[in-house]
């Protein structure tokens, strides 16, 4: 079983709409969660991290973590065509190595 | 923002040959990573490297794999000899301490 699972596999929203991406972990030892975005032909780029229960907001992006249910989500309000990309959820343990465990990704398409 | 460079972008080699993938990390970063992504599958951690040593490696980091960063230059992943199952995109990443990892654009390795 994969330790980090994402849903949906793909998502299409209209420009200006809200996109909601989900991630569930099966390992309670994960302490840190990251959202990465990858545009075609590029490497993943970190959007934000979260490690405390509740919401964390950065501009149009809001991450939510519920440690009890091992669920983390990313909400993008006022979605723009430039937000179209592959979004990864990644998790790490509280160790010195920083190893990331990635989910399969969600393909987001924002239609003008 | 800070950029990680990877050379070459694409490498095609015959099975059994040696290949070296090069990564130019962000200049003040201390931790270095390699991840492997097979087409259509999730990105998986291979190894991380700090202070001249391997800190952690996954089961994907076979005996044929080695990493080094001689004299603070490129961080390299060497595979000797290569196998068909080594065909993948290899992403290098670097971070300052165990915080946000910055990824390069990847090297697509094709083993024939």
Structural write-up:
The complex is a heterodimer of chains A (112) and B (112). By secondary structure, chain A is mostly beta strands. Helix content of chain A is 0%, strand content 58%. Chain A has no helices and 11 strands. In chain A, a hairpin with a 4-residue loop joins β7 and β8. The radius of gyration of chain A is 13 Å and the shape is globular. The relative contact order of chain A is 0.34. The mean pLDDT of chain A is 93. Chain B is mainly beta. Helix content of chain B is 0%, strand content 51%. Chain B contains no helices and 11 strands. In chain B, strands 2, 4, 5, 6, 9, 10 and 11 form a 7-stranded mixed β-sheet that branches. Chain B has a 4-stranded antiparallel β-sheet with strand order 1-3-8-7, with no helix packed on it. In chain B, β5 and β6 form a beta hairpin.
Nutshell version of this structure?
The complex is a heterodimer of chains A (112) and B (112). In chain A, 0% of the residues lie in helices and 58% in strands.
- Succession of helices and strands of chain B: EEEEEEEEEEE
Q: Hey, roughly how much beta strand do the residues of chain B contain? A: over 45%
Determine the mean pLDDT of chain B.
Answer: 93
CA(first)-CA(last) distance of chain B: 36 Å
Strand runs of chain B, count: 11
Rounded to an integer in angstroms, the radius of gyration calculated over CA atoms of chain B is 13 Å
Largest interface: A-B, 23 and 27 residues
Which class of secondary structure composition applies to the elements of chain A?
mainly beta
- The CA-CA distance between the termini of chain A, in Å, is 37 Å
Helix fraction of chain A?
under 10%
Query: Spans of chain A of 5+ residues with little confidence (pLDDT < 50)?
Result: none
